[in-house]
Amino acid sequence: MIVTKNNRKLEKIMAFLSLIVFSAGLIYSIYFIAIWQIDSNKTSKQIIALEKTVEKSKIDFEKLKKINPDTKGWLQVIGTDINYPFVQSADNQFYLSHSFDKTNNQAGWIFMDYRNNANIFDQNTIIYAHGRVDGTMFGTMKNVLNYKWYSQSANHIIKLDTEKKETKWKVFSIYSITTTDDYIKTTFANTVEYMTFLDLITNRSIYKFKVDVGKNDKILTLSTCYNKTEKIVLHAKLILNE
To answer: Which of 7, 18, 32, 89 has its CA 20 to 30 A from that of 41?
Structure first.
């Protein structure tokens, strides 16, 4: 095979272009990692600051609302690090990329579905958050998939406080599922439709909970990304509303 000057020139050009593409990809990766770390640091600092609004069992909602008027309540999932205030906006997009103080942050924040009413609770009240690998937001919700978490009955009680109410919810279903949205319906046309829905989500559970759920029950759904194709979903029924 005869290698011409043009061939050698072309090879050099291709090698140079490959180097540019590789360098660009490397720079982008470094930039992405840096932004992720910056957002994580901001989120951690915000969490520490918000913890100061809680003294023992008393939550200072007035102080929280001064920081963010979108504050709707405080959520605690025992056996995880989920112990944060949650918010609600006019859509389900804003808090995917904004922190509690409404600054841009890809870590997002914990938020209630815009269709829900935090004052009365719908048939299905839904709360979302990113499953951050650093454990913030719903990052430790993966704990609920472990048998060790399930085996501790104290973990099965979810605490959710609003400015006017203190509520407790008992877990009856836990599962991971591909990105479907059939579990995020908030209200139902009739009893048959609601009972069909309850049967569907109960039967999906990877563990059996001794909890009966009926037509008059209100439920809480927590949802987060588990990986690129799956989500972790937890359902609990309202057992205390004071």
So the answer is: 89
For tokens 């205390």, name the residue.
240
Phi-psi bin for 108: left (phi > 0), alpha (psi -120 to 50), beta? left
Catalytic residues: 225
Q: How far apart are CA 134 and CA 101, in angstroms?
A: 20
Kindly list the distances between the CA atom of residue 194 and the CA atoms of 123, 187, 197, 215, 228, in Å, as whole numbers in the listed order: 8, 8, 5, 7, 30
Task: Please give the full DSSP string across 91-139, using - where no structure is assigned.
Answer: SSSGGGSB-TTS-B-TT---EE-TT--TTT--SEEEEE--B-TTSTBTT
Share of the chain above pLDDT 90, in %: 71
- For the domain 54-241, what is the CATH code? 2.40.260.10
pLDDT in tens, 184-216: 999 999 999 999 999 999 999 999 999 999 999
How confident is the model at residue 154, as a pLDDT? 97
Domain ranges of the chain: 54-241
| CA–CA dist 219, 66 (Å, integer) | 29
Supply the DSSP symbol for 57.
Answer: T
C-beta atoms surrounding 206 within 10 Å: 12
